[in-house]
From TrEMBL, chains A, B:
Protein name: CinA-like protein
CDD domains, alphabetized: cinA (cd00885)
Family to which the UniProt record says this protein belongs: Belongs to the CinA family.
HAMAP family membership: CinA_B
InterPro entries, A to Z: CinA, CinA-like_C, CinA_C, CinA_KH, Competence-induced_CinA, MoaB/Mog-like_dom_sf, MoaB/Mog_dom
Coiled coil: none
Native organism taxonomy: Bacteria, Bacillati, Vulcanimicrobiota, Vulcanimicrobiia, Vulcanimicrobiales
Residues covered by the MoaB/Mog domain: 5-173
Length: 422, 422
């Protein structure tokens, strides 16, 4: 069993100008792979303080895992401190320099002289290549076998480096065996306490695997955690629990692990041989954006008409001027007309429309900030509507409205088996 | 000047099941009040490790500021460790016990025996009353004058205790006067190393105010930090530095502090009396979404046509079938036609179009994954185009493409003073 402490480097994180999400991700991943995380630390861009911190960590634990401070600017001092902590000078790592030069060439940019500093690494270290950025990571070893691993602070560079390079290195070095394996079941349209009532007895009785609930704002996940010697063994322990949970959650369950709600919707629309699209006012393209984020969405998603101005609702979605004048843009009638208009103008089987008041201005007593009308036009020509009012500021209202729209689409698809496509 | 380190106690935060927002808040508040924060740490519910950590902190700094672990459950061991670190036994604090009993009475609940433990505090400490919860906070002093302050982990209890009790105590004890005030200048379309070259001499020479660079993926901020006795004094120190920086950054500078790139664009479009819209393929509504996120965007933004399917590009944006057949959807010609189509169909002065290959499928040797064509149609009918290739996965490409689109719009607006609106 290996023990480590996590060190986040950077004044911005230390002083709270940036929220540290890296150490949360790293701690979770390490715990899942059987590494004991004893402590987490955050220091500013100060080589002496980082050096003192690393010395302390290497007294208590097998190693330190650092993120941040590998960039090309003069305030990136991590490597100097690490070199001192493990007693190794920084030397030029030619393959990393060449990889960086190649990367710059590929994107048609000239590499600045100060980028070269990123290719200097502690002598004898294990290099962790960075296919998603310029600065390589590394694991530097002290003579006594204690280690300091360094990864970039940019999450999209750090995460794959951790999963594909550092964790395999840790597994090999510490012969990690029993680890925690997880499966996450995603739900939508059911609250935390409702869900709790459905699974409470399992929550109390199960030991290994055990289950936990995790609320993400307006969606709840159920996580199944098994301590096992291998993924295969864990999967066998997890499978019957997952099946029982899916049965209890019913149509609110939409997928496992990496599956997104939009991804589950795209898969269902494809499975039915349908196409779909959106007509958005207050959500302003956010629903379309979530759908297009799904690889392969083009097999079912045809497009969206973001009709933010009223006369665009008329010219591109055929909402009548009379409707807009008599009941207003934020109304059931307008939502229905938008959904129908999207279905015909985009040439899709299924269309969802949103129109609402995101704020901060524009609310009235009858139509307060947070009010959103939804309409779903189905392949059989029928239109369902829903009125919801969301709390929070403009960003909250728009975010909740776009997730609610996906939730409505999901539940429409669950009920759609009997309806033929046009 | 006082120096402290922040210690967050609790296994949930250490292992990443809860995101630590407390230490971010505390670090900001302390910095604003002139307290130097040297480091932040997170430990689990383990009294020995917390004790060892506090010993280290009190060697390096004037004091430790802890949150969490003051509850009534058996894993709340903070006070034992603190008592040992400062060399004081825990003794019953009668006024706190009476306040707790009163609080329970008030809410009509019976106080459990284990709640009483919350009223045991290190001998001789300064008590920080907790009007928002049961557990009081405290500042325990060691014989040499070093201190350990403890507050609850629940943010709505911790925040007022920090503001109303702990910070006043620190101000008095350390006769704090000066504090750190900041201003952030946002840039777009310029890389970290380019920017570094333009401001490196200031970075090296300035002491107070000093400057720092902060990269957010594809955008870089320059932060100016002034240590001063008041906001007014700080503003006077910051103003000339900000002016010099803006001059050097030129048109890549788009705003200060809370200003977003989309917000700066909306303001510029409104200032010119124009309207604008987008035609999106690979970005799939992400550009529109960022613009609609700006409060008051409706004064200039009319909408977007997300034409993900090819024939929607034809039916709603008037891209000719011949163009799509001969040069394909991802081409300069298609981007131009989309931008012109958006300008006429949405009835806007200015329109930007995107068409590209987000991946993971669909790339070829000539049109690799990451290739995106942009076109901007201007009020005078002219269309500019740009071809870019972005690294990374589907999410990276789409994210970078939508920021690049805003960057192009921004630079187009900067050059637009002489062009009349239609």
């Amino acid at each position: 069993m290996a023990s480590v402490e996590i060190v986040t480097v950077g004044t911005e994180i230390l002083l709270g100008h940036l929220v540290d999400t890296n150490s949360v991700h790293i701690a979770k991943q390490l715990a899942d792979h059987g590494v004991d995380v004893f402590a987490k630390h955050s220091v500013g861009d100060n080589a002496d303080r980082l050096f003192a911190m690393l010395e302390g960590v290497l007294e208590r634990a097998d190693g330190a895992i650092c993120t941040g401070g590998l960039g090309s600017t003069v305030d990136d001092l991590t490597k100097d401190a690490v070199g001192r902590a493990v007693g190794r000078p920084l030397v030029l790592h030619e393959p990393s320099l060449r990889a960086m030069e190649e990367r710059f060439r590929q994107f048609g940019r000239v590499m600045a002289e100060n980028n070269k500093r990123q290719a200097y690494l502690p002598e004898g270290c294990v290099v962790l290549p960075n296919p998603h950025g310029t600065a390589p990571g590394f694991v530097a070893l002290r003579d006594d076998g204690k280690f300091v691993a360094c990864m970039p602070g940019v999450p999209r560079e750090m995460k794959p480096m951790l999963a594909e390079r550092l964790i395999p290195w840790l597994e090999q070095r510490f012969a990690l065996r029993s680890a925690i394996y997880t499966k996450t079941l995603h739900t939508v349209g059911i609250g935390e306490s409702d869900l709790d009532r459905r699974v409470e007895d399992l929550f109390r009785s199960l030991e290994n695997p055990k289950i936990a609930m995790l609320a993400h704002g307006f969606r709840v996940d159920v996580k199944i955690m098994a301590k096992a010697q291998s993924r295969v063994e864990a999967d066998a322990m997890i499978a019957p629990v997952a099946e029982e949970l899916r049965r209890r959650i019913g149509t609110h369950y939409f997928g496992d692990d990496e599956t997104t709600l939009a991804g589950a919707i795209v898969a269902q629309v494809i499975a039915r041989g349908w196409t779909f699209g959106t007509a958005e006012s207050c959500t302003g393209g956010a629903i379309a954006d979530k759908i297009v984020a799904v690889p392969g969405a083009s097999a079912a998603f045809r497009g969206s008409i973001v009709a933010y101005a009223n006369d665009v609702k008329t010219s591109l979605l055929d909402v009548s001027e009379t409707t807009l004048e008599t009941v207003g843009a934020v109304s059931e009638e307008t939502a229905i007309a938008m959904a129908r208009g999207a279905r015909s103008r985009l040439g899709v089987d299924l269309a969802i429309a949103t129109t609402g008041i995101a704020g901060p201005e524009g609310g009235t007593a009858e139509k307060p900030v947070g009010l959103v009308w939804f309409a779903i036009a189905s392949p059989d020509g029928e239109v369902e509507t829903r009125r919801m009012t969301f709390p929070g500021d403009r960003a909250d209202v728009r975010d909740r409205a776009s997730i609610a729209a996906l939730s409505l689409l999901w539940h429409r698809l669950q009920a759609a088996d009997a309806i033929p496509a046009r």
